[in-house]
Amino acid sequence: MSFLVVEGLVAGYGEARVLHGVDLSVAEGEICAILGPNGAGKTTLLRALSGMVRARGVIRLGGTALTGRPPDAVARLGVAHVPEGRGTFMPLTVEENLRLGAFVRRRGREVEDDLDRVCTYFPPLRDRLGQVAGSLSGGEQQMLALGRALMLRPRVLLLDEPSLGLAPLVTRELFRIVQAINQEERTTVVVVEQNAHLALGVARQAHVLETGRIVLSGTAERIRADEQVAQSYLGYRV
Ligand SMILES: Nc1ncnc2c1ncn2[C@@H]1O[C@H](COP(=O)(O)OP(=O)(O)OP(=O)(O)O)[C@@H](O)[C@H]1O
Ligand SMILES: [Mg+2]
């Protein structure tokens, strides 16, 4: 059963078209990886899903049409986007950043519980709640970005290159936590990753995007096992 459905998605910037009719579907509770070379349109795809760039075509989440809705409306419907570059507010404290993640929800007990829950997933954040985000390490900032997204209680988590600029050990820990969130909260995850090996290690399905089109879709095992695919589409061995 498809939860997130994308059909014939076209998107770009001004006159420049980047996505030329993307089709993909993601089952509820699944982790789906989007792979592909630089400039393929991976970031643009996530931006289209969260309403940050204008798009045409079908985007449906659990039967609700998302296409054409502004980002805050898409967030209210349960889509949390952790953008490239993380998007945390550097002068604000960790706690202020986390509370911003709950902006579409009313305050109160629920938000306090969620703050606690996020800090359980990311213990370093609990120790740094009063610290400004700009003073965090790269790994802690990525944790904060993820934590802020979780504060929305999302149905779908869109992650853009979570490993960017992080040490391998830190990245592995982050992916372990993403997997735990997926399993414990049943949150559907769409993760864009340059590190194909890492992404295929946690994903069930994967799609390879090349110049704005999906050129290959399959189970993560299948895509990982196919060395030819790895070399021609991913540009390197996985
Ligand atoms: N804000 C923008 N304005 C105009 N063109 C853009 C903008 N952002 C991206 N593009 C162009 O859209 C195309 C796809 O970019 P996109 O960032 O979606 O690719 P990507 O697959 O995420 O690449 P990377 O792996 O480098 O992050 C590129 O040609 C890029 O130059
Ligand atoms: Mg990108």
Automatic annotation (TrEMBL):
The keyword Oxidoreductase appears for this protein: no
Source organism, top-level taxon: Bacteria
InterPro entries: AAA+_ATPase, ABC_transporter-like_ATP-bd, ABC_transporter-like_CS, BCAA_Transport_ATP-bd_LivF, P-loop_NTPase
Domain ABC transporter, residue spans: 4-236
Family stated for the protein in its record: Belongs to the ABC transporter superfamily.
Molecular function terms from GO: ATP binding
Alphabetical list of CDD domains matching this protein: ABC_TM1139_LivF_branched (cd03224)
UniProt keyword list: Amino-acid transport, ATP-binding, Nucleotide-binding, Transport
Name of the featured protein: High-affinity branched-chain amino acid transport ATP-binding protein LivF
Keyword Cell membrane found: no
